[in-house]
Amino acid sequence: MNVKRYVFLGVVALACTPALCTVTYTYTGNPFTSWGGAYACPPVCDVDGSFTVAQPLAPNLPELTVFMPISMTLTSGGVTLTLGVNCCVPVETALQVSTDAFGNIVYFSFVMYGDPNTARILAQYVTDTGGTFDDIRYLDSNGIRMPIAGINYDDPGTWSVTSIPEPSSLLLLGTGLIGAVGVIRRKINL
């Protein structure tokens, strides 16, 4: 009887232990509707991006809270910039977000400085007199922002969130389940 209690308490403790995970936030932008300078679509049609953090974003993050993701990618105009792969070291990257009461992203700003052979991209989603806009700007070789290349007013893209449990959490869960199955089989055989 004591063994059963210990197994039961172990399974309950395991179930109550929060699983560590990484969380990936993916943004899919809508096509731009207005253009600046000599830009048009193609090649600049919209902005898509993603970033991965060690934990879900906290609710009610103040406007444009700065943090460093584990990984980050930004795509626009046929160019993809990936942190530490084909562009950027952390000092050349900025990620800012704001969240609502549920931890959903409501404002964001990606800044990724590509190498000299790659487009340098800034993507933003912020409020402007009660509306929203997505825009993209390129940066010149001195890091100076160029005029807006493409913009989309009041038709923001969407965020999706994916959580991936750490392997150690899955191992603990699996061990607990195997123990519970063993106790049940023993009880049936007795």
If you had to describe this structure to a student in words, what would you say it looks like?
The chain has 190 residues and is an alpha+beta fold. It has two domains: 1-20 and 166-190; 23-164, no CATH class. The chain is built from two helices and twelve strands. The chain has helices spanning 2-16, 167-189, and strands at residues 21-28, 34-35, 47-53, 65-66, 71-76, 79-82, 93-99, 105-112, 121-128, 131-139, 145-153, 158-165. A seven-stranded antiparallel β-sheet has the order 2-11-10-9-8-7-4, with no helix packed on it. It has a five-stranded antiparallel β-sheet with strand order 6-5-3-1-12. The chain is elongated, with a radius of gyration of 23 Å.
Provide a concise account of the structure shown.
The chain is an alpha+beta fold. 20% of the residues lie in helices and 41% in strands.
Helices, strands, pairings?
Elements: H1 2-16, E1 21-28, E2 34-35, E3 47-53, E4 65-66, E5 71-76, E6 79-82, E7 93-99, E8 105-112, E9 121-128, E10 131-139, E11 145-153, E12 158-165, H2 167-189
Antiparallel strand pairs: 1-3, 1-12, 2-11, 3-5, 4-7, 5-6, 7-8, 8-9, 9-10, 10-11
Helix pairs in contact: 1-2
Strand order of the largest sheet: 2-11-10-9-8-7-4
C-alpha geometry: elongated
Report the radius of gyration as a whole number of Å: 23 Å
Biggest sheet architecture: 7 strands, antiparallel
Number of strands: 12
Q: SS-based structural class?
A: alpha+beta
Please indicate the percent range of residues in DSSP E strands (runs of 2 or more): 35-45%
Low-confidence stretches: none
Helix content: 10-25%
- What average pLDDT do the residues reach? 76
